[in-house]
UniProtKB/TrEMBL annotation:
Organism ancestry: Bacteria, Bacillati, Bacillota, Bacilli, Bacillales
Family: Belongs to the glycosyl hydrolase 13 family.
SMART domains per record: Aamy (SM00642)
Keywords: Glycosidase, Hydrolase
Chain ranges of the Glycosyl hydrolase family 13 catalytic domain: 3-382
Protein name (database record): Alpha-glucosidase
Native organism: Neobacillus paridis
Entries under SUPFAM superfamilies matching the protein: (Trans)glycosidases, Glycosyl hydrolase domain
Length: 521
């Protein structure tokens, strides 16, 4: 939200800025926007610490600005979903201020208080319990100490959060992205988590996916889906497909993020195939995977996977042609790279700053702690959109461990709009192709396979069959198309050449993706 487009010159992205770029988004070919939190917040964690669920943070504008964005987006057939944090509030929220004011306050039980903590650890590092001197008890926070977990075992809390959803649905949002939704504490039970001696880390067993959470998810889904054409996306903190599948489908969330695919840490086409294949085998027919390779919580995939724009175009093609709901993270469509810093004071992300502090406490040097902080920091992908080629403050060209890509200053919208071979132009072609070919939107897999560094699949619907091939090797591959088609074929799109008519065989260049369609009649 604060990184996309500044509309009033204060250096912070806002609703006016997004509204001014709706035509850009429409021309790009997107169908929906996911807005990260825009509510009043101290911004300890990029707005995921909400201090008021019923208003707009002044940095982003006003409720009128928000309503105008919704109206203008809908006029362009662009839907808008809002990030909503149901798991915790900011410690600055009036609810928590009332809760901590007295052990006898009616809102005391809206949060989780204990005389003695168990061994649960924060997912940001360190203990998950914070001592409160005002009332001499500990409160629970799964993330930063300023992000205080709500007690969903209290029916008043549940009703309060349903009221919040109703407010924004009636403001016109088209659904929600529900942050860390499987972390809801719905039971007054707090057994210690086990410890993995081999990895020297706690295993988060009892502080997420609690018994009863799926019933709450069903209640949320039933409530939201009373409103026509609403969409629910869940951030479920798990890499276990058997856990993920229980959160989506009929009567549940529409989709959940699959981090097994989206968070692959390094270039590994075989792992990508294995993860997507496992998802296809695990999910039921009514369930739809999600496809993404970047987000506000991870490094950008063009930096993570290497290979420059050729490889980035391959993964863009994969995301927009494989089966699933694709999520394009802003800036990926122009090839923006990761940001790193040589000064901890320039780091905004709480996760990176906590990692820096913990490293110093463990005896690491300042340089070592900064390396760890940059590794953990989510600032990498949160820098402002490069509309005119501006480079974000914080780069250092002197530190040998910080690398600025030589072409970074060439990465910007203004330049790429004029270049038919740019990353931006390629995304537009891909999205147009997806609109034109129903098999790439709703088609099932007829074939999905991997062979020696190549991934290929055939998607079909009643009207067409399309073959998509990815050569992730450094060698030219030759493929006999007669294995897949009995009629003539047409090469629709390539990451390395203009579409041409294909014969019975096709040579696939290193780091190339091809989309081939069966020609009927």
């Amino acid at each position: 939200m604060p990184s996309f487009k500044d509309g009033n010159g204060d250096g912070i992205g806002d609703f006016a800025g997004i509204t001014s770029k709706l035509d850009y988004l429409k021309e790009l070919g997107i169908d929906g926007l996911w807005l990260t939190p825009f509510y009043p917040s101290p911004k300890v964690d990029n707005g995921y610490d909400i201090a008021d669920y019923y208003d707009i943070d002044p940095d982003y504008g006003t409720l009128s600005d928000f309503e105008r964005l919704i109206k203008e987006a809908h006029q362009r057939n662009i839907r808008v979903i809002a990030d909503l944090v149901l798991n915790h509030t900011s410690s600055a929220h009036p609810w928590f201020q009332e809760s901590r004011s007295s052990k006898d306050h009616p809102k005391r039980d809206w949060y989780i208080w204990r005389d003695q903590p168990n061994n649960w650890e924060s997912f940001f590092g360190g203990p998950a319990w914070e001592w409160d001197e005002e009332t001499n008890q500990y409160y629970y926070h799964a993330f930063a100490k300023e992000q205080v977990d709500l007690n969903w075992a209290n029916p008043e809390v549940k009703q309060a959060m349903f009221d919040v959803m109703k407010f924004w649905l009636e403001k016109g949002v088209d659904g929600f992205r529900l942050d860390v939704i499987n972390f809801l504490t719905v039971r007054d039970l707090f057994p210690d988590n086990p410890f993995d001696a081999a990895k020297q880390e706690q295993i988060h067993v009892y502080d997420k996916d609690q018994d009863g959470v799926l019933e709450v998810i069903s209640e949320i889904a039933a409530f939201v889906h009373q409103y026509p054409d609403k969409f629910l996306v869940g951030e479920v903190g798990s890499e276990d497909l058997d856990v993920l599948k229980h959160y989506s489908g009929t009567g549940k969330l529409d989709v959940v993020f699959n981090f097994n695919i989206g968070s692959i840490e390094e270039f590994n086409p075989k792992k990508l195939y294995q993860e997507l294949s496992a998802t296809e085998k695990t999910y039921d027919l009514e369930q739809t995977p999600t496809l993404f390779f970047s987000s506000h919580d991870m490094p950008r995939f063009i930096s993570r996977f290497g290979g420059g724009e050729d490889r980035a175009k391959q993964f863009a093609a994969f995301m927009l042609t494989a089966k699933g709901v694709p999520f394009i993270y802003f800036g990926d469509e122009i090839g923006m790279r990761d940001w790193v810093t040589d000064d901890i004071e320039k780091m905004q992300d709480v996760q990176g700053r906590i990692a820096y502090t913990l490293a110093l406490e463990e005896g690491k040097s300042d340089d070592e702690a900064l390396l760890i902080a940059n590794d953990k920091s989510r600032d990498k992908s949160r820098t402002p959109m490069q509309w005119n080629g501006d480079i974000y403050a914080g780069f250092s060209e002197t530190e040998p461990w910080i690398t600025i890509p030589a072409d970074y200053r060439e990465v910007n919208v203004e330049k790429q709009l004029q270049d038919p071979n740019s990353m931006l132009s390629f995304y537009k072609q891909l999205l147009q192709l997806r609109r034109e070919h129903p098999s790439l939107r709703t088609g099932e897999y007829e074939l999905f396979d991997y062979d020696s560094g190549m991934i290929y699949f055939v998607r079909k619907d009643p009207s067409e069959r399309v073959l998509v091939l990815f050569n992730f090797t450094d060698q030219i591959k030759t493929l006999d198309l007669d294995r897949y088609f009995s009629t003539d074929v047409k090469l629709l799109l390539s990451t390395k050449r203009k579409p041409i008519e294909a014969g019975n065989t096709v040579k696939i260049l290193p780091d190339e993706a091809l989309i081939v369609k069966e020609e009927k009649g």
